[in-house]
Amino acid sequence: MRKTKFLVLVTTCIGLVTLISQTTATYLTPQPTDSIYSNQSVVDSSEKDLRTSTEILYDEIGLEGKLKFEAFEKAMIGYENLDFKNKDIITVIDFTLPSTEKRMHVIDIKNKKVLYNTIVSHGRNSGEKYATAFSNRHGSFQSSLGFYTTENTYMGGNGYSLVLNGLEKGINDQAKPRAVVIHGADYCSQSVINSTGRLGRSYGCPALPRELNKPIINTIKNGTMVFIYAEDPTYLASSKILKKSSNTLLAQRDVVSDVDSAYSSY
User: Fold this and answer.
1) pLDDT (tens digit, 9 = 90+) per residue, 43-58?
2) 3-state secondary structure at position 193
3) DSSP of 49-109, one letter per residue?
4) Whole-model pTM?
5) 61-241: CATH class
6) DSSP secondary-structure letter at 221?
């Protein structure tokens, strides 16, 4: 009888030990699902932090496929480093594109949306379908690159027009004396593109389609930024405003490097 009780007691103890071991193993073993989600969260957060604020804004506005990032990035350097009366609206003209494409972008920075995207003419001596030559000189009949601020409107020989004040010395600061303004023109239309394969050209003004001239001017007048961009080596090397990118973009990239280093330490 004693032997039987002893065997029952031993069997019971072995069963308890086995149960405790299994339970402990269950608590100590990491759950695969939790591990996967945890790692994915780190990756998603890392990828988001590795983008600059300019890249994030570019995506939020939905400019992909509409405006080259290089043009927007350089426009934002001026936006951050220059004072404008109205910083809610900016205009970017991308002269890397042919005149048959919609090269003007009027952007509502405050509400993160594109207000207008339209064709725009360049100066007659800047090129045929593409604008490739630029000047600040009187009588050149060429477009001028760089940053401008919009001023007042007036009725002139080309109808309703908007004064542009060039902000870059030696690059576009003769815009007002040269009467380089935004105005409407019959030669800036889809019908001209259809018949000639390109837009007509101005004496250096960024001319717009007649039907869009007034609404665009009324949107961007009185102190907004206009940036006219091209991949022109002379301009890119001489613009003091773009050189301020060392203060703006490098600061963003320093933050990115710090974040990257933090993640690599794990």
Assistant:
1) 454 455 568 999 999 9
2) helix
3) HTS-HHHHHHHHHT-TTTS-HHHHHHHHHHHHHS--S--SEEEEEETTS-TTS--EEEEET
4) 0.76
5) mainly beta
6) T
